[in-house]
User: Which sequence fits this backbone?
């Protein structure tokens, strides 16, 4: 989940052999099923040559693998934007053509998983005596040869163009716009730019020519302070829109519903955590989103989407405490893994939450306390 797990020299007993394997990274991802195309949260473990995944039962990782993805000769696509309501997906195409779709909880985490998986794939190629050739056609890398009008037409295409939505910043609602990171993701996915750096340069050119406009304080400030070639911000909180002259052509895909007040705050932290149910006392993986101004903690069912929360509460007057791992605290059911903490709301509702690591637990506690 965090960068520490990425480089940790941990070892794990393999479930099908007696040898120990090196863990490069581990954490929750949401995976699309092969037969039934539903989405389920799984615990993933990246090793030098494969990606293993497990179920979580009763708040604890199942000891049996649910599956593995062999990384040799895999092809990774990141970002993968063909799922309209799931912008944080990466695609892994295995050697024999089987496609695996994995969704992270944030753009940063998605890109970190992609970078680590790519590094593992490249290391396997080097081990086989193959050299990674990246001799692209120079014409593809020379952004000054790109027709900006055609790029704009593609962005505005009603079927494959960038999705417009409504955003709230400091109490102001901005309609039919998009974030800087969404533009960069789209340009890379459509292969109009080979890297995120190239995509930022291309987006800056669209901005400089007046095809795109800045929306909100962050992007306006970036335009004022940045250099002439890097005016565009690759960030989920920097907002942009099409110019008014383009909007007159008609509206592309757009959301019509406005965000509720409690969903309008700035996102402080996102991540997958385990939450104990109030009635059945079962443990389920949830995507938690912490916001400020106003301070709310919402949680989403990752098998659905991150638009409509399944629950949430105001952090005003909340109490949060870390629970010890020696024994099962009162009110907690199941064979838990550990790293527990509890939140008591102002209405005296008790939430028991489980983090994937001790560091993640402390990070969440500190972040929530800063908002109470």
Assistant:
């Amino acid at each position: 989940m965090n960068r520490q797990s990425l480089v940790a020299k941990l070892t794990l007993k393999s479930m099908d052999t007696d040898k120990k394997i090196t863990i490069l990274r581990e954490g929750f991802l949401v995976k699309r099923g092969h037969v039934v195309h539903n989405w389920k949260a799984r615990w993933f473990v990246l090793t030098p040559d494969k990606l293993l995944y497990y179920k979580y039962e009763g708040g604890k990782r199942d000891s049996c693998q649910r599956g593995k993805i062999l990384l040799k000769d895999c092809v990774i696509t990141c970002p993968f934007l063909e799922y309209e309501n799931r912008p944080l997906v990466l695609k892994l195409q295995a050697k024999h053509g089987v496609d695996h779709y994995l969704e992270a909880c944030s753009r940063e985490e998605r890109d970190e998983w992609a970078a680590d998986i790519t590094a593992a794939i490249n290391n396997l190629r080097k081990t086989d005596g193959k050299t990674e050739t990246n001799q692209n056609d120079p014409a593809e890398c020379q952004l000054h040869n790109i027709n900006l009008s055609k790029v704009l037409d593609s962005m505005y295409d009603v079927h494959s163009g960038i999705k417009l939505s409504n955003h709230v910043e400091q109490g102001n609602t901005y309609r039919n716009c998009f974030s800087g990171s969404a533009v960069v993701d789209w340009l890379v996915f459509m292969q109009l730019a080979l890297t995120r750096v190239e995509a930022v340069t291309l987006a800056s050119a669209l901005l400089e020519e007046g095809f795109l406009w800045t929306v909100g304080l962050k992007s306006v400030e970036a335009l004022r302070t940045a250099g002439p070639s890097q005016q565009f911000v690759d960030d989920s909180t920097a907002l942009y829109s099409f110019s008014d002259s383009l909007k007159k052509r008609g509206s592309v895909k757009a959301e019509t519903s406005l965000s509720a007040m409690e969903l309008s705050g700035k996102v402080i932290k996102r991540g997958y955590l385990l939450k104990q149910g109030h009635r059945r006392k079962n443990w389920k993986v949830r995507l938690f989103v912490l916001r400020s101004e106003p301070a709310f903690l919402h949680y989403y069912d990752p098998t659905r989407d991150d638009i409509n929360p399944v629950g949430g509460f105001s952090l005003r007057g909340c109490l949060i405490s870390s629970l010890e791992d020696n024994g099962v605290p009162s009110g907690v059911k199941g064979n838990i893994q550990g790293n527990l903490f509890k939140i008591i709301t102002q209405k005296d509702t008790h939430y028991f939450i489980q983090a994937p690591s001790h560091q993640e637990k402390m990070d969440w506690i500190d972040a929530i306390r800063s908002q109470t």
Summary: The two ends are 24 Å apart (CA to CA). The chain is about 25% helix and 35% strand. The first strand starts at residue 10 and ends at 13.
